[in-house]
Design goal:
mainly alpha; 147 residues
């Protein structure tokens, strides 16, 4: 009964590194490992990167893009744009079919909430999400004075 669970015992630095690597190899996420061991995610990430680097699995600077192996040199490093940086306007939205009804509701009830609009459109068959609807309402709704 007086025996402590292993999680209450303070780990040495080497035991800590081994535990992090072991758990990561079992497939646990870095966030979960950090939460269970009571340390920051960044410390767990650092330990995993150091381990990969020491085993030759990761280049020294993981932030730099991979270099071509065919001997050719690029004049500029590769630049990656995050997906949220430039939204793509590809194709139709689930909301397009309900544009007329949406405009009519906004005209008739200028102060209607997006939640209520979503409920009304769902009755008519709309299966899309709240986010896209709120963005479209922001575009369509006349400017509202600040409260």
């Amino acid at each position: 009964m007086s025996e402590r669970p292993p999680s209450d015992r303070r780990l040495t630095e080497e035991e800590f590194r081994n535990e992090v690597i072991h758990r990561r190899n079992l497939g646990e996420s870095e966030r979960r490992i950090a939460m269970q061991l009571g340390v920051s995610r960044w410390l767990v990430t650092k330990v995993i990167r150091q381990n990969r680097k020491s085993r030759g699995l990761e280049e020294a600077d993981s932030a730099s893009p991979p270099q071509p192996t065919d001997g050719s040199q690029r004049s500029q490093p590769l630049r990656y744009r995050p997906a949220w940086d430039s939204p793509s306007k590809s194709g139709a939205s689930k909301l397009d079919a309900f544009e007329l009804q949406l405009r009519q509701l906004l005209e008739r009830y200028p102060r209607i909430t997006v939640i209520r609009l979503q409920e009304e459109l769902q009755v008519a068959g709309y299966t899309g999400g709240y986010s896209i609807l709120s963005e479209r309402v922001r575009e369509l709704r006349p400017d509202q004075p600040s409260r």
